[in-house]
Design brief:
Helix content is about 65%, strand content about 0%. By secondary structure, the protein is mainly α. Helix 2 packs across helix 3, helix 3 packs antiparallel against helix 4 and helix 4 runs antiparallel to helix 5.
Length: about 130
């Protein structure tokens, strides 16, 4: 719960971005849960969320959280091979996932690099009552 509280303390544009990523990786796969791709995206989303929660518990809300999205990279490469390039909602869903998650991985790479270069202080301090 602390992790989710911390996410809501981010500036509003970042809250919207995180919400969009959560929708794309945890909710929208339910629409395609009868496909192997939907199951892989949901499973990968859950693994990533667990990794991020573990990092949060160990280090707080630091730039290192981007490592939690690491499982997305092989998933995105695999999804690219699954595209059939027709005009179906399924194809558009996969393309949207590839676009959103790729952008997130670029942001994550910058954040993790900054962490490794010494920016290790928490980005948010969570006040627990």
């Amino acid at each position: 719960m602390d992790f989710m509280k911390a996410m809501l303390l981010l500036p509003k544009p970042w809250v919207a971005w995180v919400g969009l990523l959560m929708f794309a990786n945890l909710l929208s796969p339910l629409i395609f849960i009868n496909t192997f791709e939907g199951q892989v995206v949901l499973g990968t989303g859950l693994v990533s969320a667990m990794l991020q929660m573990g990092i949060f518990q160990a280090k707080g809300f630091v730039r290192l959280l981007g490592i939690g999205h690491g499982p997305w990279l092989p998933m995105l490469l695999w999804l690219w091979t699954r595209l059939d390039w027709n005009s179906s909602i399924f194809t558009y869903w996969i393309l949207a996932l590839i676009g959103l998650n790729s952008l997130s991985l670029i942001i994550d790479a910058v954040d993790v690099t900054r962490y490794m270069m010494g920016e290790k202080e928490p980005q948010l301090e969570l006040k627990i009552n």
